[in-house]
Design goal:
The structure is a single chain. The chain is about 75% helix and about 10% strand. By secondary structure, the chain is mainly α. The protein has 2 domains: about 1-75, no CATH class; about 80-190, no CATH class. Helix 5 (about 100-120) packs across helix 6 (about 130-155), helix 5 crosses helix 7 (about 165-190) and helix 6 (about 130-155) runs antiparallel to helix 7.
Length: about 190
């Protein structure tokens, strides 16, 4: 392992173990489930690193997402979780609030996911037509659907979750899509 990879590994293990202890101590089974998913993702990325050759930028961006996700359910600010933190009142009704930290984190992850996907595919694409960049953004949006399935499984499996209802899921999908599209545009212009 390279020196920078050791630092990334130790940092990831530190927050994963720390939040595992924390969520176990408060019996938050929803986030213990998310930790299990995070551990699988960590193992997949670490186990394939010699083949994927992810740079430190992508690895730290994924690390930041994992940490933000764990903080999202565990950091309490003014009596609410970080996920529920209301940032800017762009659109507020009795059913939803835009812009919340949850939406920013969803945007961020699928923004980063476009760079992950592009890194994995770019060496295999000879002609980089604009439709390729659209497809990369759509793959990120498709992967975001797995996130929503994981949240739905938590809702089905546990009595109490912080997932939210229909509006939360719909806004998650909107911000997943916005993040993927924004990154797709950046990758397109960067590659030109």
């Amino acid at each position: 392992m390279k020196k920078g990879e050791w630092l990334l590994t130790l940092f990831n293990l530190a927050y994963i173990i720390g939040f595992t202890i924390y969520y176990y101590s408060i019996k938050d089974y929803e986030f213990l489930g998310y930790i299990a998913v995070l551990v699988v993702l960590f193992l997949v990325v670490a186990g394939t690193l010699r083949k994927t050759n992810f740079g430190y930028g992508i690895l730290w961006a994924l690390t930041a997402w994992g940490l933000l996700h764990m903080l999202g359910g565990g950091l309490i600010i003014n009596g609410s979780t970080l996920y529920a933190l209301q940032l800017i009142p762009l659109w507020v009704t009795e059913n939803f609030y835009v812009l919340k930290m949850d939406q920013v984190i969803h945007f961020y992850l699928y923004f980063v996911m476009v760079f992950v996907i592009w890194h994995l595919l770019k060496g295999n694409i000879k002609k980089k037509h604009w439709l390729v960049y659209v497809a990369v953004a759509l793959v990120s949006i498709g992967i975001s659907g797995l996130n929503e399935v994981a949240e739905f499984i938590m809702v089905l499996s546990l009595e109490n979750t912080g997932v939210g209802g229909y509006y939360n899921t719909a806004w998650d999908i909107v911000f997943n899509t916005l993040g993927a599209v924004a990154a797709g545009i950046i990758v397109y212009f960067r590659e030109r």
